[in-house]
Give the backbone structure.
Amino acid sequence: MKIGIMGGTFDPIHFGHLATAEAVRENFSLDEILFIPAARPPHKSENIVTDENQRLEMTTLATRSNKFFSVSDIELRRKGLSYTFDTMNELHKIFGNATELFFIMGADSLADLSKWHEARKLVDKCHFIATTRQGVDVDFSEVKKFFGDAATKHIHRIVTPALEISSTDIRQKIRRGLSIKYLVPDVVEEYITAHGLYREN
Ligand code: ATP
Ligand code: MG
């Protein structure tokens, strides 16, 4: 089994997340993609984000029409900031160590990977897929230097369709009363409207 992991705040989930996950799934012949909404530490005032159950629900609604997509609440159940290292360990326990895990991330985060908690163990045990847009070059030399052989074997790159969508932009649009059609699935738009999300703050 090969499982792709798409982590994020998903506040809200949008077509950028979904299209990227689908492209990765096909290109790396993954059996499924697991979307894992991140918890936010309760003590940080700058992180006033939408209720985690609502983020979980929107993620579930958005992924329902794709039989290869599913959603996990393991980081929400753990509360506070989750280390990817802990999440991957938990997933290996659930799916068995023979299951290969592919963590999907924006290529810009690749530069920081060496500073992640238990970075070397993480890159030894899991795969990383760095997504970039066409024409954007990623400097791999630092990552190669730090992780050595493991980088060559376990860190991959993929060019995904450029979708200039961010959750920040969507939240702003809603606050300004602008349309978010074609940025999020209809079910997500309906959920946001029904629950009056993002209208102020
Ligand atoms: P925010 O604007 O609140 O930061 P976001 O749109 O960046 O939200 P996140 O939940 O922070 O969404 O992102 C989760 C993951 O999805 C990250 O790995 C991020 O790099 C990736 N991602 C976000 N937007 C896009 C997009 N338009 N295309 C491809 N990947 C994306
Ligand atoms: Mg972001």
Remarks:
- The chain has a mean pLDDT of 92.
- The pocket of adenosine-5'-triphosphate (ligand 1) is lined by residues 8-11, 16-17, 20, 105-106, 131, 163, 165-168 (CB under 6 Å).
